[in-house]
Amino acid sequence: MAAMTSAVLVDIQDEVTCPICLELLKEPLSIDCGHSFCQACITENSKESQIGQEGESSCPVCQTSYQLRNLRPNRHLANIAERLREVVLGSGEPLKVILCAHHREKLQLFCKEDGKLICWLCERSQDHRGHHTFLMEEIAQEYQEKFQESLKRLRQEQQEAEKLKAVIIEKRTSWKNQMEPERHRIQTEFNQLRSILDKEEQRQLKKLEEEERKGLNIMEEAEDELAHQSQALKELISDLERRCQGSTVELLQDVSAVTERSEYWALKKPEDLPTKLKSAFRAPDLKKMLRVFRGLECTGGDNEHPSLSNYSSRDSPENFTFTSQPVPQEELLHADSAPGWKMNPDQNCPVFSSPLTPGAKTSPLGPEGIFKQEDPQEETRGAAAMALKFLVNMKEKVTCAICLKLLTEPLSLNCGHSFCQACITDNKASEIGPGGESSCPVCGVRYSLGNLWLNQHLANIVERVKEVKLSPEEGQKKDLCLSHGERLRLFCKEDRKAICQLCEWSREHCGHQIFLMEEVVKECQEKLQASLDRLRKEHQEAEKLGSDIREERTSWKNQIQAEKQRIHTEFNQLRSILDSEEQRELQKLEEEETKTLQDLAEAENELVQQSQLLKELISDLEHRSEWSAMELLQASQRSRFKCINGMKGEKESGIRRTKRYKMSEVWTLKKPKTISKKLKHGFHAPDLSGMLHMFKELTNVQRYWVDMTFNPFNLNLNLNLSEDHRQLASVPIWPIKYYNYGVLGSQYFSSGKHYWEIDVSKKTAWILGVYCRKRSCNKKFRRGTNYPNAYSRFRPENGYWVVRLQNESEYNAFEDSSTSDPKVLTLSMAVPPRRVGIFLDYEASTVSFFNVTNHGSLIYKFSKCHFSQVVYPYFNPWNCPAPMTLCPPSS
């Protein structure tokens, strides 16, 4: 009974022992999970095992979370612990059980199978028959040795845990030190990308401004030329109206020159006025570019960016040059019938045509060297006629070109033309620029109102001309021949001029058809009227063209403004994409930082808990090493007993004293998972400048996109063509084994630049390029795909400039070689082309292949191609049944 009582007291001692300090509970506090600890022990543990916000910690036994404020004192356990202290034998020594509970014999043996102390009667009982039993002292020594081994191993594990903890702290510091530089680097890289966009935007705007300036200059020159032609038409119409309303002599006088001017006058219309922008800006698909770049990063491929060139604008149209028909000059009058000298063209001296009268004057009248001997009376009449004509011509010279009246307060321009002060200051129609800058109504030279100057000499001449009033007699003198002073009553049809009767007899009009003026005046009036009507229409058309040009200029400015706004909008969208991409990269970096630091924190907490447990195990083993043999084996017995009866509420990793011995034997340090000191994926900025360069190259050649289809007339039986002739697929024909898969395009080229695209996204094999028939090529090739020289035909020597795909990922180009087989070049593709662009420059003798999928990267370029005849696009679907599709322009 005493032995049983002692065993019960030992069990109770286990229940009121603190799992942390392994002593009887002092001021015990209980957790919600049911476990109890000394107040001092659990408070200190809360500081070390804190795992979250608001003072959350974990129970040292079952790891259940608790908060320090939720601990509650356990008075019953405190009372039991106090009562138990009173029956302890010796200060701080545990209870000793020395008698068998069943036989009341001294416990001196130890059963290894049952792990318990027994007496000699127990050894002979049925329960322990056949078991290995040892003396208590012998087995205690073995346990002590095991304790020492476990103690040594646990201390090594503790050192390893401390090292790992130091490594984790170092990694966490390293990570925190990496984050800020990486964040700054990402921001710097994106600022550089924005700078590239800013430069590209400025380049586009500058290019647009240059195109605007050239277009406005062309329109301005065209408008000035039309204004000049319009003014010349006004003068010509005014002259014709004056002749039609004047006398017969005025109508027929110099009618030849007037008729020739009016008949040969043609309004020169401006050509090739810029009405639309040559090449509107096309924004690249930056999202797709960055997506492709990220794909290249993930696959570890090299980002091939051969280089992207600037948008090259087309040649500017030539400036318009307008010229009006020259006005025929009046021929010099000379009378061969009058006596005088005549120059012999074969001699160097003049020859008299008749004897000279002594004292008479002579005067040369023409390039033929005709000298006229002047009669005094004729000289007087001729002088009067010449004076009259001079005054009439002078009156025309001092007439304002705007109001067609004599000049009033004449102002002169730097170009030499003069106008009435009121006319030139009100000339708003010719204003062409800011600051009052205008153009001369006659010659179109620019002037400003501040540069006009008063022409006093011209004003004096105008006043003198105004004083001359032609009397009826003087008016009649206008009907006199300037050469002979006779009345002008005849009309020479060949020279188309009014003449007198003496002119008719002169050599100048010898053999000409001469009519009375009254007979031809109607015909001349009709011709002049017809010319006048035509010129009025031309003038109206000139005015309309001028109005159209002004409208075109306004439209042009509106187009430019709208294009500028569109460029700003497009680049703002590109910047927005970069902003989103930057935020995505920064967020990705933040997430990686948070996850890594969280993993490091969890690993550190796990190591802290393991380290704490190691300390407790080491402390327990050190404490046990001081126990006696009886105490060691009693502890082993209690551990065995409780394991058989299934201790509830304790985990396998619990730290109850009765199980620490077993744990120390099997304890292994659980190392945290490996966490790198460096970032998994550092941000790499794409070569945006190179991408834009390639995109501009592609955009530049796409201006020459032709609407291509497959040619159905050279189609083989093994090829299937869609109804719109845009999709081609190969089909097997059994039992035929070899086929010809080649087909030409519907167009052929002998000059110029041409571009087309083919969708090959579903194909695993194809051949694409151009073909030019060679006159010297008489080789015959076997059909099919399964023989060694299947590709021997595809070489420039035979007229093929092609690129191929085979086996899904092998890309090649074929060049000439010294052998019968072509030189096969292996092409590397960072991104497999789902769409291929082909550009032919016939004059430059080049064929270029572009990977449209990879924003226009160059696949391959054939240079120095010898095109002896027309060039055909060449397509070969090979033996892959998936279709290839010709893309319509700008699709």
UniProtKB/TrEMBL annotation:
Its main location: cytoplasm. Keywords: Coiled coil, Cytoplasm, Metal-binding, Zinc, Zinc-finger. Residues 18-63, 400-443 form the RING-type domain. It comes from the Eukaryota. GO terms for cellular component: cytoplasm. It is found in: Cytoplasm. SMART domains: BBOX, RING, SPRY. PROSITE patterns: B302_SPRY, ZF_BBOX, ZF_RING_1, ZF_RING_2. GO terms for molecular function: zinc ion binding. Residues 140-243, 521-552, 586-620 form a coiled coil. This is Tripartite motif-containing protein 34. It comes from Myotis davidii (David's myotis). The lineage of its organism: Eukaryota, Metazoa, Chordata, Craniata, Vertebrata.
